[in-house]
Structures are given as C-alpha cells and as structure tokens.
Amino acid sequence: MAIEITKELLKNVSNLIANQKDTALSDLFTDVHHADIAEVLDELSFDEALYIIRLLDSETTSEVLMDVDDDVREKILEQLSAKEIAEEIEELDTDDAADVIAELPEERKEAVMQQIEDEEHAKEIVELLRFDENSAGGLMAKELVKVNENWSVLGCVTRMRAQATEVTRVHSIYVVDDSGKLKGRLSLKDLLMASTKSKIADIYIPRVDFVNVHDSAEDVANKMRKYDLEAIPVVDELGILVGRITIDDIVDVIKEEADKDYQLAAGITQDVEADDTILELTRARLPWLFLGLIGGIGAFLIMGGFEDSFKENAVLFFFTPLIAAMAGNVGVQSSAIIVQGLANDDVKGSINKRLIKEMLLATLNGIALAIVLFIFIWFYNNDLQTSFAVSVSLVVVIIVAGLIGTFIPLFLDKRGIDPAIATGPFITTSNDIFGILIYFTIAKLILGV
Question: What pLDDT does residue 5 have?
C-alpha cells in the first residue's frame, strides 16, 4: 500500500508518538512498503524517527534503514546498540548488510559482527567487506540459487527449494561443476519440461554473461544495460561462482555516477549534498571558481592587447560577450554529448573521425548563425567590412570550440580520467579565452586595425 505523505499524516504520526500510542502506530504502518515508511521518517524529527524504528519489527526496520536518507541512517545507527544493529543486519541480504557495516566506525564494526548469531552470514559479510565498494565484489550478494551439472532434475528441485528460502527473489538459476566453477544457466521452463531422471548437464544453457569480482561498478552497469539483465553472476579469478548482482544495486550505481558527473559538469570537485557544511561546500566549489577567475584574468589581458583596435572600431567591443558565450555554449554542447556517449559506451571509432564529424557539424552551425549575425550587424552598423569580420570570427570560434569540446573528453578518457570533468567551467573558461583571442585576431586582420 502506497502512503501519501501530507502535513495531516505527519501531524497524526507525531501525535501518536507523543501520546505513546504504539498499537495505533503499528496499525498505521501495517502493510506499508518500507520505502514509504522511510519517506515518512525523513520528514519527521530525528527523535520521532528513532521512536518508530524501535517500534517496528526487525525485518521491517532493516529494509527501512536501507531507504532512509544517509544522514538519518547514520544518526539512527549511532543510537542503536551493537546487538540491535546485529539483529537488523541478520535480516538483510549480505550486500546490504555489508553496506551498513561499512558505514560504522571501526570499533563498532567488531562489536556488531560479534553479536551476529548466524556465523555463515557473518563470514559472508566479512568476505564482501574485503572488496572495493565500487567493484563487482563490493556490489554482489552471496544469496543465489545454483545447481550442480551432475544433479538429476528431481534432486535439483529439492536442493533448489532449500536455497530459495535464503533468496528474496530468484532471478536466475546458475549451473556449476564439482569445483564450483560457473558453467551456465538453467531455464526454469527447461527444468519443468525435462524428465525427472535427466541430468542438469543435458538441459542447461552454457552461454551466460558474468563479471569478475574486480570489475568496476561502471563496467557491471554497462554490461547489464547492454544485455538487459535483471541479475548477473560474479566469479573470482578461477571462474568460481561467488555471488550475483541484481538490478536494484545497479540502479543505485547509475544514480550515484550521474550525480557525480552532474556535479563535475557544474564545477563541483567533491561528492557533496545541499545540507553539507559551508566548509565542505566551499572546498568542493572553490577550485573551479578559481579556474574561472584565472580565465577571466586571461580574457582581460587578451582584450588589453587589442586596446588600439577598440579605439578605432568600438563596435567590436559590444560583440565580445556574444563571441565568448557562443564559444562556451558550443564547447559544453560538444563535450556533453561525448561524455554521455562515453558513459553509455556508445562512442566508437578513432578520435580523428570524431573530430572531423564535429568540425563539419560546427561549420554548418557556424555558417547558419553567422548569416543571421551578418545581416543584423549590417542593418545595425551599416558597415559591410565589420559585419564580415565579426561573422567570420563567429564561424571560426564555433569550429574551434566544437573541436575543443570533443577532443578534451576523449583525451581524458584515454588517460583514465573521468571525462565529465571536461564539461562545465573547464570547457567554458578555455573556450572563452580562445574565443576572444580568435575573435580579435581575425577582426584585426580583416579590418586592418
């Protein structure tokens, strides 16, 4: 049941908490999805959220904790005892449990792990914590359904039932050999249609997409997107099946990557949120703002070198913002398309082909815009030579800006640097400087000033 968050609902919840109407509160959240409960908690005061968390059963609380705001979860975990956290951990799949444990201070990690009664669950969590959080090993869950290729169909069904009790949702059935190496996948339809005496080796599908524990989260996301997978198995260096990654984890990865790229494109160098401290926000924003300041000083020095041109043809000055803006806009457009293509693994071929294509596109756009600008200046200033000089400058500036916006992300990607850093202030500032330099150089050559 979806729950609509309104001021009236929040007021009712607060009143029930204030009057300690625990039964009424429990009834209110009965059959409500954990994501909706988490949304309610994010709107309440911390003390009220903590009260509800302590009221709900462990199974519900564990799911809610994964959906509440990160800051709220951190505060809640600080208030829970090691035993209380362990009770929630035991209700979670190993991947989510490892995420929660990883957020705890080192001294609390040990205390919580010692309180987990299910030793097998604890061992699997410890194993996951060894992997980088941005790798396939850090994303995977240990819960899955696997069958041995030498089992009969009848024996396979019996063993699958036992495994399925530990798995929230069965996306795929994986086939392994006696050493645990991944061999393929098993179609549920083929399993149901086969004779009970048949061997799994005779009916499984040998082709299966998989990732290695050390593959990056981005590579996993690209593979699952490419093949439209709901889940993908994870193997170690020996090809042994060690876990699986489900689509819900990949959605989180895609969102985090998109947030990071958006912040980089906006000139924010660290992962920050709106409610972070002023000092944290300043550290994230200041480097690119400083770059913008340096770019502005550079533009000032360039314009100072053409002071005589201003004196003899003052109208050139008034088109400086237009040239700089067009250079910045074209560069950001070009780089944004390339960055998006690189993120989706859609950019193929050599850099030279990309640059030639962008040059042709920029030339076409530049000529179309230059014609409009030429007509405007001619009517405004009644000076054919000035109209020609500014229009030609615009075409050249757009071409150069397009090439810079295309080349830099591709160059950074080849060097293993996140190409998203190329968009925003970096491209805008560099193209402003080059645009102004090109503009005045061409105008000076044509007008002879």
Answer: 66
Long-range contacts of 278-282, Cβ-Cβ distance < 8 Å, separation of 24 or more: none
CA 346-352-358 angle, 5° bins = 70
Say which DSSP state 233 is in: E
Q: Which residue in this structure is represented by tokens 């009236």?
A: 8
d(CA 160, CA 271): 42
Across-strand partners of 135?
216
- Is this prediction's pTM over 0.70? no
CA–CA separation, 84 and 98 (whole Å): 16
Q: State the pLDDT at residue 3.
A: 61
Return the H-helix or E-strand segment holding 223.
Answer: helix 217-227
Residue % of the chain over a pLDDT of 90: 27
- Angstrom distance (rounded) from CA 442 to CA 449: 11
| Closest of 108, 94, 102, 219 to residue 144, by C-alpha | 94
Q: Do you know the residue count of the chain?
A: 449
pLDDT, position 136: 94
Measure CA 104 to chain center: 23
Burial of 178 (0-12, 13-18, 19+ CB in 10 A): exposed
Closest CA to 374 of 391, 392, 393: 391
